[in-house]
Amino acid sequence: MDIYLPIAEMSVNVILVLGLGGGVGFLSGLFGVGGGFLMTPLLIFIGIPPAVAVATEANQIVASSVSGVLAHWRRGNVDFKMGVVLLVGGFAGSSAGVWLFTVLRDLGQIDLVIKLSFVVFLGIIGLLMLVESLQAMMRRHKTAPPHKVKRSWLDRLPLKMRFRRSRLYISVLLPILVGFVVGLLAAIMGVGGGFIMVPAMIYLLGMPTAVVVGTSLFQVIFVTANVTLLQSITNQTVDVVLALLLLFGGVVGAQFGARAGALLHGDQLRSLLALMVLIVCGKLAFDLVVTPDDVYSLGGVVSH
Amino acid sequence: MARSLLRLLALLIVLVVAASGTARADLVADLSQHLVAITTGFSGTKVLLFGTTGGMGDVVVVVRGPENTEVVRRKARKAGIWVNDAEMVFEGVPSYYAVAASRPLDEFLPERVARREEIGIRNLRVTPPVDAEPQEFDAFRAALIRNKQKAKLYSVEPERISFLGNRLFRTDMHFPANAPVGTYIVRVFLVHDGEVIGANITPLVVSKIGFEAGVFDFAHRHSLAYGVLAILIAVVAGWSASVAFHKD
């Protein structure tokens, strides 16, 4: 059964898209990740134009982050003050990102930049996770030494602010910078950026792990909403029909994933996720390196 | 737009002259439908073209989609990866081009007629950009046609037109799911003794209809409102999912 996507201007199999949404939703429930970093490349693999995949996935992440943040909010695990400071950077970063996206699209390089960004970030994150989870598996019965963060020069930055829920007294410049970088990536790669935001919050800002995910989700809502809005205005690449299909599959899949996640060990889960991230990364890298069937391609109709 | 109108006008004059010169030009042709509607379930369609001739000659059909500006890009290997490197912009390229004929073209259609009427993919006129080198132009033109064929928007070989008896003919014209919207021109030629003795022009409109058209128009005309609505839908969907699956 095929459905015509009005913005992507192509027809796709409904079952395939629902399955993708469900599959990635299952994984995001299983691993507690957003899934944008898997969904955007998968959409590109099935032939959705990268520009549409990125903008539409940002729209879907708005929904999954809303439903995610509510659960954390009920448990009081959202540092709203920190979230707002991150957002200052996030709005600037994602706006700059959409502008950069448009410039790159006109230059004919956007597909390359999207794919390269994924290869670089998926590669780094995948490897780090794999190493970390394997080490954790080997020393499961020993108690891990507490992580000591050295932040001497970071502590000397000006404009300090107190974040009571995170029990931090740090310069606002740092979270603003983190928010900016993640916002930029969200706009260009169509991801929420949780997979970069969460490590940055723990290791760079020194936030307690309990509030990290909730706070990250909180700011992701607004950053991806900003991306959705700006992409709609400048590039008209948000396909609501596609977003709704992905959403529906994702919501259902996430519920099953969360239940399945309870049956597995945390470090086993992380190593599985790491492997999957590396597979997607490998496929993207392979496509960039291997000689294409045709070195010529159509760049799409020029809009005037 | 003005260009294609001029082209149409010129063609009409040619046809009127051709028709008045030959009394035998009794060619009648029509389509089973004049509107291809792109709706939610659209995954490509075919339109039946049928007609009659006076009993002699061969029939050729040429379908051209609305004209566009197309960019063709060429990748080159840089630092190990394939990067878009050179590009060429073509103005006034038909977005769709298909040919159907009652016999292989070279058996009945002289080259000069084929070239004049742009019948057959190699006779499709593509204007080179002003600064294009001839060799580069040839490579990019070939790439344009090859990629259009891959997207099923240009025909590779002419489709068959079949005759029922010696007057009645019919052929199926295929429009893929990615068929561009706009007005298509379907031209039917009756060729006898190496000359066009009759011709017929029928427009065919490919258009998004109903929900699909609404979404597309909304996204392009009121993009701010579209963006806001997309966000609202996502927020409501996310919130209701959280409520629906909340176990307390």
Overall shape of chain B: globular
Mean pLDDT of chain A: 84
Summed up, the domain count of chain A is 1
> What spatial order of strands do you see in the largest sheet of chain B?
2-12-11-4-7-8
As laid out across the biggest beta sheet of chain A, the strand order is 1-2
Largest Cβ-defined interface: A-B, 54 and 63 residues
- Approximate shape of chain A: globular
Q: What's the mean pLDDT score of chain B? A: 86
What would you say the CATH architecture of the largest domain in chain B is? Sandwich
Total number of strands of chain A: 5
Elements of chain A, N to C (H/E)? EEHHHHHHEEHHHHHE
- Kindly estimate the percentage of residues of chain A that lie in beta strands according to DSSP: 5-15%
CATH class of the largest domain in chain B: Mainly Beta
In terms of topology, how is this protein built?
The complex is a heterodimer of chains A (304) and B (248).
Chain A: E1 2-5, E2 10-13, H1 14-31, H2 36-45, H3 50-74, H4 80-107, H5 110-138, H6 152-155, E3 160-163, E4 168-171, H7 173-189, H8 194-205, H9 209-234, H10 240-261, H11 266-289, E5 296-301
Antiparallel strand pairs in A: 1-2, 3-4
Helix pairs in contact in A: 1-10, 2-3, 3-9, 3-10, 4-7, 4-9, 5-11, 7-8, 8-9
Chain B: H1 2-21, E1 28-31, E2 35-38, E3 45-52, E4 58-64, E5 67-78, E6 81-94, E7 97-101, H2 111-117, H3 134-150, E8 159-160, E9 162-164, E10 168-175, E11 182-192, E12 195-208, H4 211-221, H5 223-245
Parallel strand pairs in B: 2-12, 7-8
Antiparallel strand pairs in B: 1-3, 3-10, 4-7, 4-11, 5-6, 9-10, 11-12
Helix pairs in contact in B: 4-5
